[in-house]
Every structure is written in structure tokens, then in C-alpha cells.
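Posting for a labmate who doesn't have an account.
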Amino acid sequence: MNVVIVGAGPAGLAAAEHALRAGARVTVLDQAETPGGQYHRMLPEAYAARRPERVQHGRAEFDRRRRVLSHPRCRWWPGSTVWAFDRVENKVHVLRGQSDGKGRRRLALVPDALILATGAHDRTLPFPGWELPGVYTAGAAQALAKGERVAIGERVLVAGAGPFLLPVAESLLGVGAEVVAVLEANPFSTVRKGWSAQSWRLAAHAGKAGELVRYAAALARHRVPYRLGRAVIEARGADRVREVVTAQVRADWSIVPGTERTFEVDAVCVGHGFVPQPELAVAAGCALDDGFVRVDATQRTTVDGVFAAGEITGIGGAVTAAAEGAVAGCVAAGGEPSPGLLRARDRALTFTERLATAHPIGAAWRSWLREDTIICRCEETTYGELRRAAEDTVCPGPHALKLGTRAGLGPCQGRVCGPTVSELCGGAERHHRPIIQPIRLGELAARTEGEPE
């Protein structure tokens, strides 16, 4: 059995481990040069870190990475971009090499089973000034801190929604940045209701409590205030961000008048949860539910031989992703998952539900917007242009809206603005694209290695 796994984060590595246990030959691909994904991001080898496992959130995960990728039946392909999937020939098309470099090798794989563990990226809601230099997504700020030991600024404000803000703040403090505050947009009542519901089930997530204590201790040690029910509603500056305006918001995220407060900063990182990256799943023909890949109890998608695990099936964190990956790897390799493996996955999935309830996106966030607020940064499409296009009865529908405003047609192909455009005016549904990732014309015309001329 030949199993190909796309993505080397917690879900992909767990899938590889359990597929190997079931006797399969495994190929693991990832665009990054080092495995681990965002959660287990490592410093480059050139840094010669004395204790790299500290960045890996524990020795156990670090050891698993080495154990899996050094297995004789495992091939590890770093720097690999899956740019297309041929449904007819069941062929995965891959480019190996730096994504912005020349001379990438064009290869193809024909797996017996394909596991998609492509993860998710930050969701950032637009606000006036969010396009200014110095405004980062929370994930980008953490990636620079964990992967390069670089701080995005000297005085940084961390804001948005969800527990991911806490490790981001910890990472920034660890590289010498001054974190002026951490702001959670949801009020205390919403967060408490989400986490306290069915409290007897919290025992299954005891490890998260330890993480929370560590993050709280780090904030307290550096005297960083943590505020609930407060959000960034504007960034100001000429050449780059110089200050941000925050305000108290209600449970629906509408602004409470008169509560505005300004912070002087040279950087701000914002994150409002995560958006799945299902482009490869869509290319494979997998069905989606609310943007997430639909899977059954054994992580099978709606396409034979294709499995999915991790954040593309639901946002639940590294533990949930790994639990799903373990089941997917076992079943994809022809094994039968043990009851214990399934119970661990099901327990982890309750965290996904709790997370969504405790840290929702309030519907009134659009009240932060102005007519000239940019929504699509690639094409500089404003909120006013989108709203007028959506109200135009002459050219109705999402396709006409895209063509008329170009929202989602820029270099990112809607990955950043897509969820926002969809929520504002229903114009960003997922379409199958024959080419999933950017590829040069010369690479497209080149012959695939191993195929006859």
C-alpha cells in the first residue's frame, strides 16, 4: 500500500506514523523545508539550536518527527508544492524546490491512498488601515518569531479572537518585543459560556489547562494586560502603522460608543480564527460543508481513496488534528482503527465544538467598515465598491460581482479576502481550479520526470 500525505503538520505526521505502523509505504510532502507545520515550527538548521525540541512543544513531538521521517518506508519531500490533481489518472502533480526559485523539478505520484492534511491559515477581518505596513496576521507574527527569531516590532498589540492569541503573545515576548496588550473581541460572558458548557467533558482536555497556565504566567511576568470584549477597529499611519484605535464591543461585536482608546505601536498582529485550505480537496472532487472538507467516521472524504484530517475538516487545534490524522493514516493503509484511537479522536473533536462556541465571529463586525475600507488587498477593492456591486440588480450573482469588482481575483486568489467577501455579499464560493498553486509557464510546459517524451 502506497500512501501519499500532503502536509507535515500535526495531522500529517500522525497520519504518517499510523500508516507506517499498518505496514504502508509513505510519502510525506510539505511546502516548508522543515516538518511540524505552524504549531511545531522549527528554527532553520543553520541556527544550530541547542534544544530544538522546546520550539516543538515538547520532546515527545520532536522525537515523533524524527522517528517517522527517518523510517525506512517513509520518504520525506520538503519544499514540495502540489500544484494539480488529475482525477482521471489519480495522479498528484508536484514541483520540488523553493516556491519562488527557478529550476524546480516536476514530478508525479500515483498513490493507492491520498491523505490531505493541508491545514488552515489566519482569518483576519478587515478594518480601516489594515493594509498598512506593520499590520500582520497572528500566524505571520508567530512564524517569524518561532521560525526566524524575529520580532515584527518593538511595541506590538495582539488582538482578535480565540486562544491562539496567547501563544502568539508568548512567542513575541520570547524574541524581545514589548506586547502592550492582548485583546479578545468576545466578552467574558460569551467565552465563559463556551468553555463552561458541559464542564465534565473538560477533563479530556486537561493538557490545554497546563498550556493556559503557562501563557497566563508569561503575560503576568511581563505585565501584559489581557482584555475581553475589546477589538481593534482602526490602524493609523502614513508610511506604516503608528497607532491603533481599539473599542469595547458587545457580544455581537458592535462598537460601544465612547469606549475608543488609542495605542501607540509600531506593529499590530490580528487574528480572528482560521480558514481551511481546501483547494487540493476541491480539485480532487471532495464535497465541502461550510468550507470544510466533509469526512465520515474514518476520515474518508466523498472521493474513494482520499482522506482528510486536521484543520481542513474543522478548526480544533494540534491535538484534534493529530487524533484525526492517526485515524486517517491507519485506515488509508488498510488497517482497522482501534476503539481507543477512535475514542481519542472523538474526545478531541469536542474541543472543536467548544472552541467555536467560546470564540465566535460577531455578525456586527462590519460596522467597523467605512466606504473606503479596502476589503481585497490584492485588487484594492473597497467596501463601498463591493456593497454597490452586490446591490446592482442588472448584474446579480457572485460571478458578476467578482468580475465587476475583481475581489478575489488577485495573486492570493481569494485566500485572504474570500471569507470576508462571501460574508458581506456572497461572492466567494469555492471553484475547482485545474492549477491549485502558482506555477511558471515553463514549468507547466516541462516534461514530468520519469514520463516518456
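Reply:
Got it, the C-alpha cells are right above this. Residues 369-425 form one domain.
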